[in-house]
Amino acid sequence: MTFWTLASVFAGGALALWAAEKYRPTPILLYHFIDGEHEKSVLSVSLSSFHRQILHLLKNYRIVSLEEFLAAKREGRALSEKSVVITFDDGDDAFYTKVYPFLLRFKVPAALFIITDWVGRAGYLTWDQIRSMSNEIVTIGSHTVTHRYLPDLSLDDVRQEFVESKRILEHETGRPVRFLSYPVGGFGTDIARLAREAGYAAALTTNRGRNMMQKDLYALKRIKMTESSVSWHSLSAKLSGYYQIFAELFPKEPGSKAPRKYPA
Q: Would residue 17 count as lying in a domain?
């Protein structure tokens, strides 16, 4: 290996270190199901693993609400070092029985994205449960009406998914609904525009990477949490800032429609 090759390697490493420190993003974590034995999906995390992850975050990071995250982005300021946001998609009933009591006990803020057509189905939250959790700890957001893959729909149907789910959630909870999560992460320029026109303050994807300053309020990136994230090394790597930087260098296809073991 030549001198210049070595120099390039060291320079690249130093640049990555500098970028991760100077532009350390606030990661947004994405959970789906908290259960015992991956009962619903490969996206499940066991309750014991979830407890360990959150306790690790409480000890080593500052967990902030999605509202606080958005306010910082709009004001163009960085949150304190080692801040992190927690979100959940879909709204299964284990969130009420297993997750919510734990969040309350430790005063951990989280955002929960609800599919309005699934409310009351077997295995999913009821309106009474959602209303009882709509408070300063849990921010309720929209995950659309039907959870259909938005790029496959007409723009009129996408608009209906956004407007109607927001209307239903606000009617049932009595609170404004400011955040949207795209089903399976599927979106595009027109879909993001419709989210803004429907009155959402921000929208979240399943894409990896950094959320930098005021950019991309309708394409906020998240880090998917799974059972494999339970180890200290894995969790620390995902929260380090390097994970998001390298994810941008090797992006995945947005909005994969892989089948899952819950209502379509």
A: no
Dihedral pair phi/psi, residue 99, rounded to 5°: -85, -50
7 belongs to a structural domain? no
* Structural domains of the chain, count: 1
Q: How far apart are CA 264 and CA 258, in angstroms?
A: 11
Report residue 134: phi and psi, to 5°: -75, 90
Integer Cα distance of 66 and 62 in angstroms: 13
Contact in structure between 125 and 140 (CB atoms under 8 Å)? no
How many of the other CB atoms lie within 10 Å of CB of 177? 25
Interaxial angle between packed helices 242-249 and 232-239, expressed in degrees from 0 to 180 and rounded to the nearest 10: 70
Give the residue numbers spanning the domain of 165.
24-249
Q: Is the pLDDT at 133 greater than 70, yes or no?
A: yes
pLDDT digits (tens, 9 = 90+) for 237-258: 667 655 544 445 455 544 445 4
Whether residue 257 is contained in a domain is answered as: no
The H-assigned helical ranges of the chain are 3-22, 47-60, 66-74, 94, 100-106, 127-133, 155-173, 189-197, 232-239, 242-249
DSSP summary character for residue 82: T
In our burial notation (b when 16+ CB lie closer than 10 A, e otherwise), range 24-37 reads bbbbbbbbbbbbee
Specify the CATH number for the domain of residue 28. 3.20.20.370
Question: Half-sphere exposure of 233 toward its Cβ, with a 13 Å CA cutoff?
Answer: 0
Cα distances from 107 to residues 128, 131, 225, in angstroms, run: 21, 18, 20
Q: pLDDT of 157-212, one tens digit each?
A: 999 999 999 999 999 999 999 999 999 999 999 999 999 999 999 999 986 445 44
In a domain, 196, yes or no: yes
Nearest to 74 by CA among 218, 219, 213, 222: 213
